[in-house]
């Protein structure tokens, strides 16, 4: 990730706080271990602000979001990959208000991954338990109305 000014960090943090999402989804269980996916993105109908975030930080991809209703305005999202999340979240975390707690939990979750992928490096029993706990905590924080 590029080095950002404090103003750039604050602007992107505000954009993420208002229009972003961070969470964990859980997929099917393989060999007794659930498959988790971490999500960090910002969604907006104004593509240029997402392109600005991508250009300014040097990370992420801006992709169109499929909309079920064709009368709605086109929508875009800036999506971060695993390594980009690890760079981005600690930078914006201190400036977040709405997503401060969620981001802290996602950072904790990412710590249990150690960059490991799939069957080559399965998580320990302790890491599995922590991931499951953090998944439910994030799910509660990300409920509508919270």
Characterise this structure.
- With 146 residues, the protein is an alpha+beta fold.
- The chain has a single domain (6-141), classed as Homing endonucleases (Endonuclease I-creI), CATH 3.10.28.
- It contains five helices and four strands; from the N terminus they run αββαββααα.
- It is globular, with a radius of gyration of 16 Å.
- The model has no long low-confidence stretch (mean pLDDT 92).
Helix content: 40-55%
Q: Describe the global form.
A: globular
Strand and helix order: HEEHEEHHH
Class of secondary structure makeup = alpha+beta
Q: Cα distance, first to last residue?
A: 31 Å
CATH superfamily: Homing endonucleases
Please, what is the average pLDDT?
Answer: 92
Q: Please name the CATH topology.
A: Endonuclease I-creI
Radius of gyration: 16 Å
Percent strand: 15-25%
Can you tell me the number of structural domains?
1
CATH class, named Alpha Beta
* Largest sheet, spatial ordering of strands: 1-2-4-3
The residue ranges in which pLDDT falls below 50 over 5 or more consecutive positions are none
Quick summary:
With 146 residues, the chain is an alpha+beta fold. 45% of the residues lie in helices and 23% in strands.
Keywords:
23% strand, 4 strands, 45% helix, alpha+beta, four-stranded antiparallel sheet, Endonuclease I-creI, 146 residues
Secondary structure: elements and pairs:
Blueprint: H1 6-19, E1 20-30, E2 33-44, H2 47-57, E3 61-65, E4 75-79, H3 82-92, H4 100-111, H5 125-141
Antiparallel strand pairs: 1-2, 2-4, 3-4
């Amino acid at each position: 990730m590029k080095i950002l000014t404090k103003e750039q960090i604050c602007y992107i943090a505000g954009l993420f706080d208002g229009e972003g999402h961070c969470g964990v989804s859980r997929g099917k269980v393989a060999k007794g271990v659930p498959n988790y996916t971490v999500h960090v993105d910002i969604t907006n109908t104004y593509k240029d602000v997402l392109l600005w975030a991508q250009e300014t930080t040097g990370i992420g991809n801006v992709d169109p979001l499929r909309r079920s209703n064709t009368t709605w305005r086109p929508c875009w999202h800036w999506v971060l990959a695993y390594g980009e999340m690890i760079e981005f979240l600690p930078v914006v975390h201190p400036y977040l208000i709405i997503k401060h707690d969620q981001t802290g939990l996602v950072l904790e979750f990412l710590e249990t991954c150690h960059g490991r992928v799939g069957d080559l490096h399965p998580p320990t029993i302790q890491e599995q338990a922590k991931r499951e706990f953090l998944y439910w905590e994030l799910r509660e924080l990300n409920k509508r109305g919270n």
